[in-house]
Amino acid sequence: MKKKGAIMEKRLQTLRYIDIVILLVGAIYLLLVGVTEKNLSIKILMTICLSNTLIRGIEAQWNGRKIASFFIYGFSLFLIFVLII
User: Fold this and answer.
1) What is the C-alpha separation between 37 and 23, in angstroms, rounded?
2) Structural domain boundaries, residue 54
3) CA geometry: angle at 49 spanning 45 and 51, to 5°?
4) Which tens digit of pLDDT belongs to each residue from 13-29?
5) Which residues, at least 6 apart from 59, have a Cβ–Cβ distance to it below 8 Å?
6) What is d(CA 66, CA 18) in angstroms, rounded to the nearest whole number?
7) Do residues 68 and 60 lie in contact, with contact meaning Cβ atoms separated by under 8 Å?
8) Which of 12, 14, 29, 60 could form a disulfide with 69 if both were Cys (CB 3.0 to 4.6 A apart)?
9) DSSP letters along 32-83, please?
10) Transmembrane stretches, by residue range (predicted)?
């Protein structure tokens, strides 16, 4: 049982690292290109928010917070809807 918990914690740590990389790359892109390409920068910003929200939902689900993950996934569906429009 202890081994399974260590594996889950390692996966959560990997997700956090992926989240940080996505946020840093998106922030650098928005700083360099966001001023000239406003329509594209809004889509990129929404995509960053969507990926961040999905990773938070996965973390909440793995930690056993079912209701919180339900609301987080609902918010990510809202972001997908806004991103498409």
Assistant:
1) 18
2) 2-84
3) 115
4) 888 888 888 888 888 88
5) 12, 15, 16
6) 22
7) yes
8) 60
9) HHTTT-HHHHHHHHHHHHHHHHHHHHHHHHHTT-HHHHHHHHHHHHHHHHHH
10) 15-34, 67-84
User: Rounded to an integer, what distance in angstroms lies between the CA atom of residue 72 and that of residue 60?
Assistant: 9
Tell me if the pTM is above 0.90: no
Tokens 């998106």 -> residue: 26
Residue 64, both tokens: 């056993």
pLDDT in tens, 33-84: 766 777 777 777 778 878 888 888 888 888 788 888 788 888 877 877 776 7
What the block records as the tokens of 65 is 């917070």
Number of structural domains found in the chain: 1
Instruction: Quickly tell me which residue has 């079912």 as its tokens.
Output: 66
User: Residue 82: how many CA atoms within 13 Å on its side-chain side?
Assistant: 14
How far from each other are the two terminal CA atoms of the chain, in whole angstroms? Answer: 46
